[in-house]
Specification:
Helices cover about 65% and strands about 0% of the residues. It is built from three helices and no strands.
């Protein structure tokens, strides 16, 4: 049972898209992945800037180095924390399907 699309404006003819319909679930998944990456990147940058402050300006190389390593670890943890990102990375290397 197909229905013809209706246009909100009577002067504009309704158009049926040729391609696939908009996949809202994929859009939400992409948006959530982006926000997750943005959150962990912000944590990474905050730790990195504080670590560079202690390393260069405050003259404490041990604390500065520790905070820089902590910043890198936070970014890596944020990337591998999401199981769908892991599945997508494995599928990209193996040539398989991406996660739904």
């Amino acid at each position: 049972m197909t229905t013809k699309p209706k246009s909100p404006d009577p002067l504009v003819l309704p158009q049926v898209p040729d391609g696939q319909r908009f996949n809202f679930e994929a859009h939400v998944r992409t948006n959530n992945g982006f926000l997750n990456l943005l959150k962990w990147f912000s944590i990474h940058m905050a730790n990195l800037l504080v670590g560079l402050y202690f390393l260069i300006i405050a003259g404490d190389p041990y604390l500065g180095g520790f905070l820089i390593v902590l910043a890198i670890a936070a970014l890596i943890y944020g990337l591998v924390r999401n199981p769908k990102i892991r599945q997508d990375a494995q599928a990209a290397t193996a040539g398989g399907e991406i996660a739904d």
